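Inputs:
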Amino acid sequence: MTTLKLDQVSKLYRATTRAGGLTPALRKVSFELKPGEVISLIGESGSGKTTIGKVLLRLTRPTSGTVTFDGTDIATYNSRGLKDYYRHVQGVFQDPFSSYNPVYLADRVFALVRESYFPKVSGLEWSAKVEGALDAVALNPGDVLGKYPHQLSGGQQQRLLIARALLLDVKVLVADEIISMLDASTRVDVLNLLVKLKRQGLAILFITHDLSLGNYVSDRTIILRHGAIVEMGATEKIFGNPQHDYTKMLLTAVPELHKKWQHAPLAPLAVSANGAGTGTAEILSSDAPASMLARASVIDELAHAEQVVKRDLRAVFGGGRAVASGKSQVAVALEPPTLHEFEPDHLVADPE
Amino acid sequence: MSESISEAPAPAVAATGLPAGPAGTAVHRGRNDILHYGLRNKKLLFGLSLELILVLLAIIGPYLAKNPPMEITPYPLQHPGSKYWLGTDLTGYDLYSQLTNGLRESYLVGALGAGCAALIGMALGFIAGWRGGWLDEVLQMITNIIVMIPSLVLLVVIGSYLTSRSVLFEGVFIGLTTWPWVARAVRAQTFSLRSREYVDLARLSGKRPTSIILKEIAPNMASYLFLVVILLFGSSMLIAASYDFLGVGPNNVASLGWTMNQANANAALTYHLWWWFIPPGAVLCLMVFALLIANVGLDEVFNPKLREQ
Amino acid sequence: MSVSVENLSVAYRSHRGDVTAVDNVSFSLADGEIMGLAGESGCGKSTLGNALVYLDYRMKASGGKVTVDGKDLPISDSNAMRSRRMTEVSLVPQYAMSALTPTRKIGRIIDDLLKSHRVKDRDKVMTELRRRLELIGLKEDVLGKYSFELSGGMRQRVTIIMSSLLNPSLLIADEVTSALDVSTQRAVGEMLIEFRDRGYIKSAIAITHDLSILAQIADSIAIMYAGRLAERAPTSVLVDSPLHPYTQALLASLPEVGVRHDQVTLSGIPGRPPSLANPPAGCRFRDRCPFAFAKCSETPPFEEIKPGHLVACWKASQEHAEMAGTGRGLPLKEQV
C-alpha cells in the first residue's frame, strides 16, 4: 500500500534572457513513500531537495508530473480537499524559530490547528490532546506552554512543531533539514523521536545535506543532484556500496571524528555538459593536491551557481520570471540520467 | 525559502534580525522593551507632548472663544489684546476662534484623509503583495495612474461642479489621492513577509489567505503600519491646508489654510498684520513637526539598531 | 608563543544589567597552530573570537590581557586596534558570505578595504590577491562579479582570502564551514590548512559547533561551555580520550556515517545550558552532569591535568591525582 507517490515530477523556472530556455530545479523525480518508512533525501544546495518538500506539501506546484496520495492526484484538490490533505501530510522546516510568528505565543501553532480542524472540541478535551502530543515528543507542558518562541530552545521549538503535526492524524511528515539548526546535544534526541514515530507507523521524508544523519535514521536513501536522482535504494546498500561517483565523492568529503579526509579513488567530478545535454566528466587523479581538489569542487559549483543565481533573482524580483545573470557557463540538461538497477533495491543513474 | 539561504545553520539569531545574546538572554523586542525604550526616547516624548498640547487646544480652545469663527464682529483689525486674544482680521473675524476651530478642522481632515488612504492603500497593498502575478500587475498599473493624476487640478475640476464642498469631501478626496504611497509600501512588505515560514505553517494548518494576511502578516508589520499612518496624518493635514490656502477647500469653514488664504489675499504681510498670518502658519508647522519628530523617535524605539548608545 | 590570552572576560551590556558571555578564559597558541574553538550556541565562543578583533559597542572586555607575537593587543581600545586589524589579527565573521555588499563588484570591495586600511603598494597586494585566487581555483574574473553571482562556497572563499590578504598573525574564522555543502566544506577546510602551511596566516582559531570538521583541520581543540573553557587538548587526544564529562557526552551524541539507529542508539544531553544572566555557582555543567558530586558546587580551576591537556573538572583532577598517587597509567576512558 503506497502512501505518497511522486511520478516524473519536474519543476522548471522560466528564464527571460537572450538565450532563453528553462532552468530545471527538479527533473522527473519519481519515488514512493510508504507507511512506517523513513526515506533520507540527501542533496547539496541547488539539488532541489527543498523543492520536493514544498511540492509534497503543496506549497508550490510542479511544472509536470504528478503527486498521488492514497491514489488521488493532489493537484486536483479543492480547498476542502487540501485542508483534508493537511490532516494527513505535514511538514517541519529547518529554522525552528522562523516557523513561529514572533508576535504570538509559541503554542499558538496548536491553536491554529484547533481552529481549523477541531473547532467543536471542548477545552478540557483539547488540553488532554495537547498533553498527549507533548508527551509523545518528550516535552513537559509546564516548560513550553504559555511561552514566547524566544523563550524556548531550538530543540524545544522543533519538538513542539512535531507535536503540532501529531495533533492531526498525520501519516506523512516532511522533515526539511529539521536538525541542522539545533545544537549537537539535542539533535540526536529529535532523531530518536523520529525513529520512535516511524515505529508507530509514520512515514517520514527526511531531507538533509548531512549524510551521517541520513544514515542514522533512515531505511532508504535517495541521493539528489541538480534536480535528478543519481542513486536510490536501501540505506545500507547506498552507504555500504555506493556506485555513483557523486555519492562516492560525498562520502569521502564527509568529515569524521576518527578518520582524516582521504583522497578518494575518484576525486570530485567536474561537469562540462553543454547546453545540448551531452556531458563529459573530467576525473582528476587521486593524488591531486588539496588545492586541485578545491579547484575541482569550484567547477562543480559553477554548474549550479547559475541555477542558484536565477532562483535568487526570481525571489527578489518576484513573479514566475527569472533573469539570467549573463552568458550561460554550464547548463544542465532537462532530461535526467536514466536509472538502472544495480542490485535489488539499489538504483544507480548513468553518469551525466 | 530558496535553497541558497536555507543552507545556513545560524545558531541563536532571532528572526527579528537581532542576535540572541548569551544563552537565555535573547535580546528580544518584547512589549516591555518597547515600553521601556519608548518612555525614554526624547524625540518621541517631545513630539507626543507637543502634539498633545495642540490637540488639547483643538478640543478645549473653541469653547473658550467668545465668538463663532465665521461671525463678523464689529471690531475689525484689532491687535491681539485682552478682548480678542489673537486680534481680528480685516473683515472682523475673531482670529483666536478661527485658529482653534481651524485646528479642529485640520485634525478632522487629517484623520479622514489618513483613514481613507490607509484603508484603501493597505487593502490593495495586501492583496497585491499576497497574490502577485497578474493581479499585482493590474493593481500596480492603477496605482501608477492615480499617482500621475495631478490632484490639485482634479480637485479644482470636481470642485467646480459641486455647489458646496465640505470637510468630509476634502478628507475623502485626500484619502483617494494619497493611498498609492501606502499601497506600495504595504505591498513591498507583504511580499517579503509572505515567504516566511510561519506563513507556510499557517497554510499547512488550513488557514485561508484573508486570515493569514490579517493575523500573520499584518501584526508583523504593525510598527511599520503605525509609522505610515502617522506620516499620512501629517501629510493629509498639510495637503488640506494647501488646498484651503489655494481656495479650493471647503467653503464657509474656518481652517488654518483658509485663514492664511485670507491673509494673503488682503496683503496682511504688507500691512504688517502679523497676528493674522503668523499664528495659523506657525501652528500648522508645529502640528506636523511634532508628528514627524515623534515618528523618528518611534522608529528608533521599534528598530533597536537606530538607537543611540 | 604566538598568541596568548590570559584571564579574559567579555560582557554584554543590556538594560537589564551586564551579562558575562566570556568568563575568565585563558589559552595560548603556538606559531602555526590551528585551534578549534567548539561549543554549542550561547557558550560564548563567537563572543570570544570576535572580541579579539572587534569589540562592538554592546561588549565590554574586562580583566585579562591578550598578546600576539609578544606584543600587547589593546582590544578595548578601538582606535589602537584599527592599525592592527587585518595585519595582526583578522576576522572572518559569521555570515561573512552574506555580508558582502551586493551593489559593488568584488574587486571594488577589496580595493576599498585596502584603501580604508591605508595599505601602501595596493598594486602589489592585488597581484598577490590574484595569485591566491588562482591557487584555490577561483578565476580572476571573480573580481568583476557581484556577490550574488557567486555561490555560497565561492563567497566564503573570497571572504577568507580578503581577511587573510595582509598576512595576519592570527586569523579568526567564525563558523566558516557551517553554511556549506559537504564538498565545499572540505575545500574550505583544506584551504585554511594550506594558507597556514604557506605562511599566509600564522595561527588560526576556527570557531564552530562541528567537532568532526575540527577533527580534520585543527591541531588542538578547546571546548567552551556557558562562557568558560571546559577542556583543551591536542585534537587526537580530545577526540579519543576526553576528560570532561561534557566533551564525553558531546562526542557520544554525534552520529557518524556507517552507524544506524538499530545498531547503536545515541543519546543527547538532557537539560539546557544555564542562563548567563544569572549563572549558578560552581561548575556550570553540574546540573546536567552524570558525575556531579559535592565538590562541584565550587568552581573548578582550568588546569593542566596531563601535558598539553587542560580540564576544568573536579572529577577529572581528582582521578588524575589518584592515578598519579597510585602510579597507574590507565587512561580515564577505560576506568569509567
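The first strand of chain A starts at residue 4 and ends at 15. Flag for discussion at group meeting.
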